[in-house]
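I'll show a sample.
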Amino acid sequence: MRRFVSKLRVEAPREAHPVIVTAPGEEAHVDYGDGPMVRHPETGKYRRTRLFVPTLGYSRKSVRLLTWKSSSRVWAELHERAFRRLGGAVRVILLDNLKEGVLEPDVYDPTLNPLYRDVLAHYGVTALPCSIASSTTATSSSADPGAGGPAKPRACRRRPLRGRKASSWASPMAGYETSTYGRF
């Protein structure tokens, strides 16, 4: 019966996705996502953390960092921590129009948050926010070629700690705040 049913199954044709190759150190895709629930040390209540994931375009190496809150200062500090972890900065950062990074989204001349703009200028990085309506850029699929655009990095979409709660900050950090190479 299994052999008969397996012959009836028709495989769906795979969709072709362009693979955009970038030079090493050229670009990275940066995004926020939801992290695991962690017991806050001061209040003792479980709180949702924020997951910050920059992914390099060439090697697909990513750094995952957790934080309690989201602000322009935290956004800039997370970039600095990621640059230190990666051993340097990239030339171009592709980012969504998150209010911590982009104040006025515009196709031709977006207004970046002053603190974020200064941090990027210090490291010699250019920010390319996504376009307003479609949330895609011309080269954004290089960070995640299978998604067809700047979808959340796989660490944000497919959370390995989904539904779990951690009693301390150290336990999810052991699994999340790491550097990885390749696809998830």
